[in-house]
Amino acid sequence: MSELRNLKRRIGQRIIIGFDGPKVPQEVLRLDEEWGLGGFILFKRNLQSFEQVLDLTENLWPMGGGVPPFIGIDQEGGAVHRLPKPFTVFPDMAHLGQVGSVSLAYEVGAVIGREMTAAGFNTNFAPVLDVNTNPQNPVIGRRAISTKPQQVASLGRAVIRGLHDNSVVACGKHFPGHGDTRQDSHEELAYSDADLERLRAVELIPFHAQFHKAPNLDLLMTAHVMFPNVDSSYPATLSRVIMHDLLRTELGYKGLVVTDDLEMRAITDHYTMADVAILGLEAGIDLFMVCQTIDKQVELLEALLHQAETGDYPKQSWERGCQRVRDLKARHLRVIRSIDRAHVREVVGNREHQRIARRLNDGK
Questions:
Q1: Is 186 a catalytic residue?
Q2: Where residue 187 sits, what CATH number does that domain have?
């Protein structure tokens, strides 16, 4: 393998992409052939029926240039539920806070993990670890477990353990906290007035609780939120002050950091993909997520390549991010050749799983 091809494959492992439709588009296959992509995030637009879901994940597994890809969804519950029937449908996670049961929270995570694993997924971009502190928040609300930081910490931890015990990588989001904003970062750059003292007392508690007790949180998603009392220059996703100084140095986080979708308007209205590559690497981002368009995905890959070849980003820091990706995949991602359809039918939406969903829905 040529030196350039090898470099492209290493860069490709740093990106997670989305695409349209129920099958892997030819342009995505070509992109993967060139770059060896790190992973894929699927949405309702990709997941149309039970059998089609299995066919799609089965076709994604051999991709990644010989390295198993992350195959993930946002399977939170409530409004953020991606999988079609007969997959078990859970209510929004605010129900967990209302019930307050650690054992039920574990069961919920375990059921979601069991069904995802059977269907060929290995990553859940959940749970939400934001604290629901602002009733005017248009994007978090009942996606959050609770208004109480310690309750989000303990119940979120139980969900993470349930996912982990069923071979799914959990991703806590949105660091350092999206709960106290009045804007939806899908549509515009969100703002929070919180300073470091406030963050330490409230928003950081659920995240920090996952960092130093097994199973440690392996994956953390950033918030496209400005915290001008912490960093007046950049949103959290692109802030070295927040992602390196606070997350890595002060809180001691050792896992992978993935951005929220870089095609959300909080980013695209203010930054190019070249900006994102420079600032994201400087901030300490390990995985860059681009969920929509192939042009933006190529633009980011080429910007990362440019930084690797000519930028000022230290080689040892670049290697550290690549190594984190390799290590997590080596620890957690199994390699599958085909999905056992009979097993999936036994697992997905079975009576026990439906019973647990009803318990949560009924508040018991």
A1: yes
A2: 3.20.20.300
